[in-house]
Design brief:
By secondary structure, this protein is α+β, with helices and mostly antiparallel strands. It has three helices and nine strands; from the N terminus they run ββαββββββαβα. The radius of gyration is 14 Å and the shape is globular. 21% of the residues are buried.
Amino acid sequence: MIMLLRVENKKPIEVDEFSKIEKALRSLRSYGPHSYAILESSDGSYIQVAGGRVTCVLELREKKDNKHLRAYLPIPHVCYTGEQTLMFGAGKVKMLPDEILFINDVVSAFRAFFENVPFPSTIKWRDMSNIFNDPST
């Protein structure tokens, strides 16, 4: 299957092997020229990440069901509480401590999306569709 990979400040490319996607993901940094990536399937669904290394936020858009989901971990990687703000090339996003993923979590989720297999059981999804479907926001 061929998917479209978009990385900030790079030309979009069609990918048919996961190694190219993983290389792009592992090069992301929230403070650098490549701070987000999006992998889009032919039906318009996509998975996207902002940040890099140990501060990533991961979202999934399911086109068929018109749902927008954010990944979270049942057991957070971080020990602090309260909402955090991630600054990256496309702006900023607020996230909860359980929504902070490490790049290894992101790579495994992107792989599942690419291979069209179930996501790792360590990653859960929070429905954020109301944010995108509410015209007042």
